[in-house]
Amino acid sequence: MSSSRRGFRTGGQRLWEPVRDQLGPASARGRLLRLRARAWLIVQAASGAALAWWVAQDLLGHPLPFFAPVTAVICLGLTYDDRVRRILELTIGVAIGILVGDLFVQVFGSGVWQILAVCVVAMSLAVLLGAGQLLMMQAGIQGVIITTLVAGEGEALSRWVDALVGGGVALAIAMLAPMRSTTERPRERAIDVVGHLSQVLTDTAQGLRNRDLGRTRGALTTARELSRELDALRDATAEARAAARLAPLLNRSHKEDVREVGELLGPLDLAIRSVRVLVRRAEIAVREEEFVPDTYIDMVTGLAEASATIQEHLRSRTPLEAAREDLVHVARASTWSHSRAGLSAEVMRAQVRSAVVDLLVVSGMTTAEARRRVPETPEEFDPSHPPEEEDGPAPARADLPRTPGPAQSS
């Protein structure tokens, strides 16, 4: 057999293997699980298509409202975050393309230059309206369809109205009967954020203990990426809040879950900022071969374990108060300062103390009570200290006792 034939057969086998694996019996269970996960999405899209057709044909009297069900399916087929906003964007994009295409067909007919003009005008209008790429492309696609496949006389703006009908039906379904994943996504993202926070701290502690610069640099890179993950959590929470506010079919437990996760955003943001500075100083300490006491590294490890405990309670939907014991233990350890600790080590200790306060707030404490659990000296430590009556506003975050030292931003 020639080498070229063997190469052809080997290449063909490589192309076929992924298809065979995907369609084989071994992947059948995975395909069924995907179908189950998307069943509600399919039901919504199919129901939206039928309802949009009925509204446009039976209520509005349009003889062939092609774009009503098409728009509904396109919009309800979205599985992105912020589904309601994207439905609005898609509806506007489709409507722009159809409107521009209809006007051009009525005045200039169909042809090569008309397609060019419709695409340019429709996509440009979409961009001027602040559209993203999805909206811009839909405007161009719908304009092309109008100009070529369904160009006709006597229908004027009816197809544009059909698109609005389809988008309106999709929006109503998305708000009144949202996908359950819309309200579950915030908790899933919160679990991921806290898990990655714990991993960053674990890698930082190991990098400090082993004087591994590559590991601390990797931890710093991941720590900086946590801000984007937190932004995704904010977006998911905002959409879930809108769904919980507008959707009567959501039960009370889903709404309460969205509220609970939303309350984590503020303290999680502060904890991530503190950890990012901590990791930055750890990277500097390893790079400059600065002395970092083992007790300080143990604090970072303890903070990682406490974060992992919070993640586990988020996953199991159990009260976060159970994670406080680990945090209080780290708080006590942070009251001891080592006589040989340098600037980076003391900044790290200060950031551990700040992060402990933030994670105690994540667990459900008030900020004032959390600060009391992180005293300045070991003698002041009392893990069961009850909150006192406040004589005035709580001190600013910068008033938290910590060893002076500039914390470089990352």
What does this protein structure show overall?
The protein has 410 residues and is mostly helical. It has two domains: 42-176, no CATH class; 180-399, Up-down Bundle (Methane Monooxygenase Hydroxylase, Chain G, domain 1). The protein has 15 helices and no strands. Helix 8 packs parallel to helix 10 (252-262). The protein is elongated and about 85 Å long. The model is unreliable at 385-410 (pLDDT under 50).
C-alpha termini separation: 61 Å
Helix content range of the residues, please? over 70%
Question: How many H/I helical runs?
Answer: 15
Strand content: under 5%
Number of domains: 2
CATH level 1 class label of the largest domain: Mainly Alpha
Q: Any idea what the CATH architecture of the largest domain is?
A: Up-down Bundle
Output the radius of gyration: 29 Å
Q: Main beta sheet, described?
A: none
- Unreliable spans are 385-410
Structural class: mainly alpha
Number of strands: 0
Order of helices and strands: HHHHHHHHHHHHHHH
Overall shape: elongated
Quote the CATH topology of the largest domain.
Answer: Methane Monooxygenase Hydroxylase, Chain G, domain 1
The overall average pLDDT, rounded, is 80
